[in-house]
Amino acid sequence: AQRVTQPEKLLSVFKGAPVELKCNYSYSGSPELFWYVQYSRQRLQLLLRHISRESIKGFTADLNKGETSFHLKKPFAQEEDSAMYYCALSPNSGNTPLVFGKGTRLSVIA
Amino acid sequence: NAGVTQTPKFQVLKTGQSMTLQCAQDMNHNSMYWYRQDPGMGLRLIYYSASEGTTDKGEVPNGYNVSRLNKREFSLRLESAAPSQTSVYFCASTFLGLNEKLFFGSGTQLSVL
Fold first, then answer.
1. Does the CB of B53 have a partner CB in chain A at under 8 Å?
2. Which positions 4-63 of A are in contact with B (Cβ < 8 Å)?
3. Out of A104, A107, B32, B89, which could bridge A12 as a Cys pair, Cβ 3.0 to 4.6 Å?
4. In the predicted model, is pLDDT for residue A92 greater than 90?
5. CB A24 within 8 A of CB A87
6. Which residues have CB under 8 Å from B11's CB, separation 6+?
7. How would you classify the pairing of strands B87-94 and B31-38?
C-alpha cells in the first residue's frame, strides 16, 4: 500500500536560514509526488509537482527514488513561508485519489 | 468564478444529530472529494466521486454518506454525529485524470459535543 511520511509535525527556523521539509514515501511503482501548502486563512493549494522540476516561491523538491524521498527545500526562509505543508503521492496516473502525509507546520521566526 | 464553495463554514452539533455538508464547484470538474483534517493526522480521504454517477469509499468512510447530486455538487452527510467526527472538512475537485491538481474549498469547521 502507498504511504507518505512526514516525520516532523513542526519545524521552526529563523528568517534567512535554509529550510528542508522532509517527505518519504512507500510505493512499489513509479509515483508522482507533490507538495501542497496551506497558508493561514487561505485554501489548501498545490505548491509544486516533481514532474515539473520547477521552483515556486523559491522552493524546490527533487524526487530521489533510491531513498524514496521528496524533500522540500528553500535556501533562505521568509516569514511569509510560515504555513502547513503537505506532501502527497499519486499512485498512478490520474485516476486514484492522492495520498497525503500528515503535514509539517513551518514557522519562520523573525 | 467562485471555484469550490462549501457550506456551512462553521457548525456545532450535539451527539446523535444529523447534518449535511454541501459542496459545489463551478469549474466543470469531473472528480470531487471529501477530506477531513485533524491535528497530527493530516488530510484523510472520506469519500470521492471520480465522475458523476459514481462514488467510492476513501480511508475513513465510517459514519458518513455521500451524494453526487450532479456534476457540480457533492454532499457529505453525517447521519448520527459523534464527537470523533469533530474536525475540519474539506471538499476538493479536479478534472478526471488530473487528480494531482486539486482545488480545495475553504473548509467547514464542525464540532460535535
1. no
2. 6, 9, 32, 34, 36, 43-46, 49
3. A107
4. no
5. no
6. B19, B21, B108, B109, B110, B111
7. antiparallel
Confidence at residue B48, expressed as pLDDT on a 0 to 100 scale: 95
Check CB contact under 8 Å for B43 and A103: yes
* Chain A (53-92) residues lying within 8 Å, Cβ to Cβ, of chain B: 86, 88, 90
**B21's grid cell:** 455538508
Distance from B42 to chain A by nearest Cα, in Å? 4
Cell 474549498, residue? B105
- Residues in B closer than 8 angstroms to A84, CB to CB, are none
- Percentage above 90 pLDDT, chain A: 70
